[in-house]
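Cross-posting from the modeling subforum.

Setting up a comparison between two proteins and wanted a second pair of eyes on the formatting. Protein 1 (sequence, then structure tokens):
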Amino acid sequence: MTPAPCHCSIKPDGPAEPEGVDRRAFVQKFAAACAAGLPVVLGVVGVPGASGQTADGQKYDPGMHYYGMGVDPAKCIGCGRCVNACKTENDVPRTEGTFNTWVERYVIRQDGEVEVDSPDGGMEGFPAATEETTIRKSFFVPKLCNHCANPPCVQVCPVGATFITRDGVVLVDEDYCIGCRYCIQACPYGARWFKAEKKVAAKCTFCYHRITKGLVPACVEACPTQARIFGEVEGRATPLARFIRFNDIQVLKPSLNTRPKVYYANLDGEVR
């Protein structure tokens, strides 16, 4: 059988090769990916949970779904349960800078000054704000991979290891990832990190191993105030569709045209 044509490309003006990347391994993996027609293969192979069954015993069909998440900052209390649940469910190291999801606190002073903090990603909650009399308002904003419909991380990956599933989830195939970190640099939301022990890029997966079985992501399940809503973006009368319909919805950095699928309700203009 003639292999599928290679759709991979390395842009001549792309980032310099990061320190620690084995050039020979890079070339070998890239050549193997091209020979295998990687973008075609990845639509079926390497998707965790794609062959699973839903809770009612039906075989999961990714073509029947298109997922997104809604976030209501007004309901977030900064407890950090979502962060802890994600780390436990997805075996994310409890070290600095390794977060699939995190929570930021925005403090807006009377003089208009904006302070943003996220100690340990909000994993253990937040200390009391200082000089409370000078605070005009404060609120919490959960953040995660936006699972963009037009993701720059997919565009820059030289071997197609980062890809979009048919149900709209952006994933990383660890078997193909060469650890070049181009996707980490390309993500405008800071939603990726480097898994040192495996030398691959990592990120939120919407708990793909759960949603293909009819469950919600761990962060959604753990939220005590229902600040996160997961489900179908369109086509059905789902909680997420109603959330989008009945709220003033914003996405992060809309000018970049990444078409995020994490939707925020009544988001303050200071949030970036």
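Protein 2 (same layout):
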Amino acid sequence: MSDHRANSSFALLQPSMLQRIGRIVLIVAALLFLAVFLVLPVAAVFTQAFSQGWKMYVDSIHQDDVLSALRLTGLVACISVPLNMLFGIAASWAITRFEFHGKSLLITLIDIPLAVSPVVAGMMYVEVFGLHGWLGPWLSEHNLHVIFAVPGIVLATVFVTFPFVARELIPFMQAQGSDEEVAAVVLGANGWSIFWRVTLPNIKWALLYGTILAASRSIGEFGAVSVVSGHIRGQTTTLPLEVEMLYNEYSFTAAFAAASLLTLAAIVTLVLKKIIEVTSGVHQHIEEKEAQS
């Protein structure tokens, strides 16, 4: 009788033991995957960047071409990110607060850059603004340069980054609802007052989250910018393009030094994202609202 009870107890404990083993195996497999495909490559970038010492690293970053690429990358980000913020807020407000014909089409169009290859996006701008494109002859007659110039790089960067702010704001504003805005209307507030005093304070964390994602993508964008830039050194090369050019010229230390700046930007982005997620609970708020509905 006691043996039978012992066997029954073992049978009850056996699934939990298998579950623990399976959980441990999955955790170890995930950690190994991250170590091989994420941690080791990041470590390799910094190892190569500092392989010839700190002085060589600093000298590599202070090259005129690298500094020019860094300035252009910052300029493009400073232009494209605010434009994405404006578009994201306007599109999200229209989609979540109004009903209109073409609403589904607008939502679909917002997702296009996520589905289209950045290289294809660059080719589209070349077809429109290039010398032999639709607007190319007119631009050439008026001495306006878009392709192989800064405006083309900005346009390509805006295209590949504009979904990020809108895709963060739309689900958040849908989950949040419009009760407070309706109450403000009843109390006599006008549109701008409602936006500045009600809508914007409520969406500030989601807006900041999407802005950080857009900024990170704008800094690291390569494909679309590579097509429209023309790789004119010191004029139209962003930092990712400069990394490629240095590597192709066998300036490995300089290439990895420049790449380390992009890696640091990515790490800072991840840290800021985590801080916002913890302090604001943006995604938790969306999940709670969806569960209630």
